[in-house]
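Support request, please re-run this one:
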Amino acid sequence: MYRTHTCGALRADNVNQTVTLAGWVQKVRNLGAMTFIDLRDRYGLTQIVVEEHSPAEARETAARVGREWVLQVTGRVIERESKNPKMPTGDIEVTAERIEVLNEAQTPPFTIEENSDGGDDLRMKYRYLDLRRAPLQRNMILRHKMAQEIRRFLDSEGFLEIETPYLVGSTPEGARDFVVPSRMNPNQFYALPQSPQTLKQLLMVAGYDRYFQIVRCFRDEDLRADRQPEFTQIDCEMAFVEQEDILEVFERWAKHMFRTVMNVEFTEPLRRMPWIEAMEKYGSDKPDLRFGMEFTDLTDLAQGHGFSVFDDAEYVTGFAAPGCAAYTRKQIDALTEFVKRPQVGAKGLVWIRMEEGGVKSSVDKFYSPDEVRAMAERCGAKAGDMVFILCGKKFKALTQLCALRLEVAQQLGLRDPKKFAPLWVVDFPMFEWDDETQRFYAMHHPFTSPKPEDIQYLESDPGRVRANAYDFVCNGTEIGGGSIRIHDAKLQATIFKCLGFTPEKAQEQFGFLMNAFKFGAPPHGGLAFGFDRLCSLFGGSESIRDYIAFPKNNAGRDVMLDAPSQIDPAQLDELFLELRPVKENE
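Re-run finished. Output below.
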């Protein structure tokens, strides 16, 4: 037996017991007559003391150990003279009688402490060392506890956990697939699933009316902030349900998770916000409701006064930032530069300062004080507030203003990670138009059911059709989303037609699902939650990478394993693959 206790277990009740601990050396303090060793495992840290009267062998070993050496220590638990109230084991220490070196260690490339001195790239390369640090251990423990709680709740609701395959067929729409060549089927390829969407629908056809899976998904897309090429979903599907049934179950699930994991209680029903309201009030389909600063349509008040920037715009919108009338010219200029960045794309920023003595704005020469005040008051501005206004194409201006709203909120300290504001966003558009390809794309996926009352517009006005879809949003992040699925073959054929699929192409790509529906498909729907993102929300971190044991970097590389990498030419031959040179512009 390597240990009788873990390094986080001993307390004052254990005084005078002889114990054996095993772990890594966090720190060594050699004071001449005495040596102190902090011994660490994932359960905690215990101070080991080697004194003048300790056995000579223990003293000799203690004199040569270094950071991250793996030790086994046997000794007696004694009460500390100077207790450390910051440590759970701070009332005791172990006086060493025997120290055995289980493994020596090189000096690590960064400090393995609460706050490390290692940069991101270095810690990613030595991720196995980074994972020894307490913050990442807490993250992994949180992830584990959340997974167990998810399973407990869904099991109690009658859901079955069913695995689906990782080697599937490639399907269009969405992101690019990762493809896997098949040696046994030359010149043919599997794809790794972007989600188990069609598979979980087939499980509904098969009669397993409540399914879930905590499942890996894969998307070969250009990595934006906080994206990973492989990620984990809490994937769920239900049969014989309408949208309300699904929202009821998963609202209870969400409240259960907040209560059991975070000790946060939501007693009121969660807000349900139509997509168009979310866009017009917050410029985002994932609005952050931890603070106000709602947008207001100012188009009618702003136009017709000779200010061509507003007169030529499709839409003029703004919001009142509380207490920001004190912003200096330098601060306003910084915000103007912020909205002009390519990532935001606005051409400029109009502001109105509300003060006790009156109003002042950047467009005073085009408007009377009363006209400026009317715009500010429509935004709900009071004395001491600042109004920020953008204009342009409606949804572009709203999206740009959203970026500004979040930036101002960050500066004002309104985005508290310990405060949660969950909601459902509903009534999404069924389709989104792409100017480049001159066609509609499914906003969710091709199997999403339209609102029954909007089916009449499918062929005459597809842009008007709303989907039976819903997203679970919290603190400005989409945590999950789903929809009621189409189970009627005629309606599915109409949707494929709207998306530009010929019947032959639809049959080629989705024939297995469409054929399965001929054998009696129940009404069904579901949703998937981003498990990594939910972990980072509960953990109070901006990055999902902190909650994945072995993540990829922003270029999609695993710098620890040095992957992706070249493979042996013999493997390529077995797979009937040939490589071609990469051109400079590729």
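The longest strand covers residues 18-30. The chain has 16 helices and 22 strands.
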